[in-house]
Design brief:
It contains 17 helices and 15 strands. It has 430 residues and is α/β, with parallel strands linked by helices. The longest helix has 16 residues. The site of FE3-S4 cluster has 13 residues, from β11. FE3-S4 cluster (F3S) binds next to β11.
Length: 430
């Protein structure tokens, strides 16, 4: 659209374009008359700001047009940058046009009752206000980082806008829907407008493999997949890895762990496991004519070394935190088996993060009762990166998640399998 003026702005989690953006002319992105009306503010300032952001991103990536998206997931954090943008949208009258789910912020009532943090985090707090603005603009308050399993499930071939580390690669690779590696704000803007600029992974030619990863390691459990993701993310940094050598189809939680870690230590929005992920049956199809830029081999040695690098504590632990990403029903079933008839040590605490939907299903299956009988707590709607855990800062922690160790709110940390977390936290001899 010749002559259109839009802000050139940053797209990271601390979106702050109104205060420091520059204005430039835009020529390549063609907008429809309707899109131009949104951009001029005819549908309110909130929608206008959302469109300004999407247009700026489109220009930055040389998109030629906007395309419809049918669902979005905003990896909201309840922190200042998050509040800044959602407040602008809400006060400008924006409303979500398509189903738009949200990441964990906090179950304030639970934390007030259980952790007694009412004074610090009341209605005036950033997190509280952020949550309310998301509600106001009509977001679905799923408050989970794995919405693609229950609350917001894209279909194969659907164009969507999903942020969150595990969500983007899971949606692209395991489901075969199409999303870019969105920020909180670009996903939210897409949720309000129902569109996104057509660039990146929305175009088939950009979904080909770029790096070959030969997996020779023994992937015996979910933790091994976390280590694999951690290692691949660090080595590949950015691109689309093709993983060969995996003989057995990964389970859902193994996929989730792989996705989360590749997209935390690296910026990996998509991968192929020929024969298992949906877009390519063979290595040849995965690369679709691309020559791999690099070839990486992962053996047990690399996983062992990755495991050792994660450890910042040894010996006794004070607290276990699981559920980063949120535990799914299968993982709660496994935990139930491991904790049945056991007691968490009196001098330790044990916390499991999950979604409200999963907790409800786990209640019906009888898992929650059995887990809580042991002294462990099941927490919904929040995540390890939230203020709720600040009171654990002086404690030595343990987790089965390298991502949790990375964002940890506790002190030194041990990282290991679920079985090892349970063994380290129950009464001796149990
Ligand atoms: Fe989920 Fe928070 Fe971990 S969003 S992946 S629980 S850091």
């Amino acid at each position: 659209m010749p002559g259109l003026k839009v802000p050139l702005c940053c797209t990271d989690g601390n979106y702050n374009y109104l205060s420091h953006c520059s204005i430039r002319n835009v020529d390549s992105l063609q907008l429809t008359n309707e899109e131009e009306r949104v951009l001029k503010g005819e549908y309110g300032q909130g929608a206008q700001k959302a469109m300004e952001l999407l247009v700026a991103i489109g220009e930055g990536f040389d998109a030629e047009k906007m395309i419809p998206v049918t669902r979005a997931h905003a990896a909201c954090s309840g922190q200042e940058g998050d509040l800044y943008f959602v407040e602008i949208l809400a006060k400008g009258g924006a409303l979500c046009k398509i189903p738009t789910t949200t990441n964990p912020i906090a179950d304030f009532e639970y934390f007030q009752q259980v952790l007694n943090i009412a004074d610090e985090h009341n209605e005036a707090s950033v997190a509280w206000k952020t949550k309310n603005y998301y509600k106001q603009i009509g977001a679905i308050m799923s408050q989970t980082c794995i919405p693609y399993l229950a609350e917001n499930i894209p279909k194969y071939g659907e164009h969507v806008a999903f942020s969150e580390s595990s969500a983007t690669p899971y949606v692209n690779s395991v489901i075969g829907a199409l999303t870019n590696r969105e920020s909180i704000q670009t996903a939210l803007a897409a949720g309000v407008i129902g569109e996104t600029p057509e660039y990146g992974l929305h175009l088939k030619e950009n979904r080909k493999g770029t790096v070959l990863v030969k997996v020779e390691a023994d992937l015996r459990d979910g933790y091994a997949y976390s280590l694999l993701g951690q290692y691949i993310g660090k080595k590949v940094v950015s691109g689309i890895p093709v993983l060969v050598g995996i003989r057995k189809r990964p389970t859902i939680d193994q996929y989730i762990n792989l996705c989360a870690m590749m997209n935390v230590t690296g910026a990996i929005p998509m991968f192929h496991i020929p024969g298992f992920t949906v877009e390519a049956k063979t290595e040849e199809e995965s690369f679709a004519g691309n020559i791999p830029k690099d070839i990486i081999t992962v053996t047990d040695d690399e996983l062992r070394q990755t495991h050792e690098e994660l450890q910042t504590a040894t010996g006794a632990i004070d607290v276990v935190i699981l559920g980063c990403p949120h535990y799914n029903l299968d993982q709660l079933a496994e935990l139930t088996k491991l904790l049945r008839g056991k007691n968490i040590r009196r001098d330790a605490s044990f916390w499991v993060n999950t979604s409200a939907t999963t907790k409800r299903l786990a209640e019906r299956a009888g898992y929650i009762e059995l887990i809580e009988e042991s002294g462990a707590h099941i927490v919904t709607d929040t995540c390890i990166d939230m203020f709720c855990w600040n009171n654990l800062r002086e404690k030595t922690g343990m987790t089965d998640s390298p991502k949790c160790a990375y964002y940890r709110r506790f002190g030194p940390v041990r990282v290991g399998t679920l079985q090892e977390c349970v063994a380290a936290s129950v009464e001796r001899g149990e």
